[in-house]
């Protein structure tokens, strides 16, 4: 992989993959916190503990938004790179980049 364009594709693909995974993780975490808050309310737990669990839920929810914005920017950057590097579309790096965009929900 001596071509710097392929290296750049590999890096940007990794960034998109990592942020996408991070966003999914925060969504899962947020759902768990939400369920725990609901259970705590139903069980009549201490208000202080419920409040702390709600704070954790809010932090997770806030991180989802942050990840989403970073993911959009990373996908846009990767898409632009794919547009300009059509001549290497038969390489594994190009195919992997298209695949991760498809996984994220962006048709390329």
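Q: What amino acid sequence fits the structure above?
A:
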């Amino acid at each position: 992989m001596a071509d710097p364009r392929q290296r750049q594709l590999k890096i940007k693909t990794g960034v998109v993959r990592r942020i996408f995974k991070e966003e999914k993780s925060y969504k899962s975490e947020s759902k768990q916190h939400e369920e725990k808050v609901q259970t705590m309310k139903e069980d009549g737990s201490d208000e202080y503990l419920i409040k702390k669990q709600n704070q954790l839920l809010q932090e997770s929810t806030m991180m989802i938004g942050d990840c989403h914005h970073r993911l959009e920017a990373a996908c846009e950057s990767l898409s632009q790179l794919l547009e300009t590097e059509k001549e290497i579309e038969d390489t594994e790096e190009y195919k992997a980049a298209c695949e991760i965009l498809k996984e994220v929900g962006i048709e390329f």
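Q: And what stands out in the fold?
A: The CA atoms of residues 23 and 65 lie 9 Å apart.
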